[in-house]
Every structure is written in C-alpha cells, then in structure tokens.
Design goal:
Helix content is 18%, strand content 36%. The protein is α+β, with helices and mostly antiparallel strands. The termini are far apart. The model has no long low-confidence stretch (mean pLDDT 89).
Length: 184
C-alpha cells in the first residue's frame, strides 16, 4: 500500500456584504422567480441543470452587483484578475438541502445570500479528517462567502417555512503578484 501523509495548511475564505444588495434585492428575486428552473437533487428550485441557451436575466443584475466585490477580493490576495466560469441560483424551501459536494475544475466557489431569513441555514464546510463541521461567522442576507472549491461543503436542510435563495458561482483568481522573502 502506498504511504501517504496528510498535511493541513492555512487557507482563506472571503466574507462580506454587497453594498447595493437591499436596493437590488426585489429586482433580483423577481428575475430569479421568472427564470426557467427545475428541482435539482433535493433543492426546491435551481437552474444549474437547465441548458445554457436559456436566457438568465438575473445574471446581468448579479454580475453588476458582484463585480466591485470581486475587484476588492483580487486586491486582498494580490491577484491581477478573475474569471467567473458560471453562476446559478438555488432556492431552498422546507425540507430541501444540498448534500455534501465540491466544485471541481475551479479554484474558488462563491455563495451570495440573496434571501436569507434563517441564520441556521448557512453553508457548512466539512473537515474530512476530523469530521467536524465548520461554519463562517455571522452570515447575513446580502453577504457573499467565497471559499476554496475543493472544500467539501453543503447547504443544510431547511427545517422551517422560510425560503432561502442564493446565487452560487465558480471563480478563478489569476496572475498573482507576490514577492516572497525566503530569508527566515
């Protein structure tokens, strides 16, 4: 059997509010609610599996909201730019959830909490070595959470009649401008 060591190294997540969330929330929700969708796995409504040829009107509104946030994220990590591969909405109603998964072929995953009335329904990240569940601090409606896409994560089951709406996206940060001093 191959001998393999498992190492833990620090990594970073981004969490913060979109400044224009509340002035755009109703428009975004109307655009989402008028979109083509399907039930996906155990998610009430989602456009992940819908063919890309269908227009997703909410995507323009979302991109205009998220763009300044992503520029700031690039500055924090000294990245020159970013590429968003795709984004999709998910609506969760009572008893819906998104089971443990990762997002392959991208380096970061984002969750924008468009409609978030239940603070117990935040994204959970699994430490697969210890089997402990990690959640970010105080996530609020209008926040964006961005984390490494290889982290196993889920949206826990909704246990009440409050609807949660998110827009998820895959993003790569590119061309890092970092000077490292190796004289420790």
């Amino acid at each position: 059997m191959l001998s393999v060591n498992l190492y833990s190294i620090p990594n970073y997540c981004f969490l913060g509010p979109l400044k224009e969330h509340f002035s755009n929330k109703e428009k975004l929700l109307n655009e989402i609610n008028n979109s083509t969708f399907e039930k996906y796995n155990n998610i009430s409504k989602c456009d992940w599996g819908i063919e890309r040829k269908f227009e997703r009107v909410y995507q323009n509104t979302f991109f205009n909201l998220i763009h300044p946030y992503l520029i700031d994220a690039c500055k924090l990590i000294n990245a020159e730019n970013f590429i968003m591969h795709q984004f999709w909405f998910q609506q969760y109603e009572k008893d819906s959830e998104h089971e443990w998964h990762i997002h392959p072929s991208t380096n970061y995953t984002g969750v924008y909490y468009v409609e978030y009335p239940d603070k117990n329904a935040k994204t959970e990240i699994l430490d697969f070595k210890t089997k402990k569940i990690f959640t970010m601090g105080d996530i609020k409606e209008g926040d964006v959470l961005i984390f490494p896409s290889n982290l196993v994560h889920r949206a826990p089951k909704i246990k009440n009649n409050l609807r949660k709406t998110i827009i998820s996206f895959n993003i790569d940060f590119n061309k890092f401008n970092i000077n490292v001093d190796n004289n420790d």
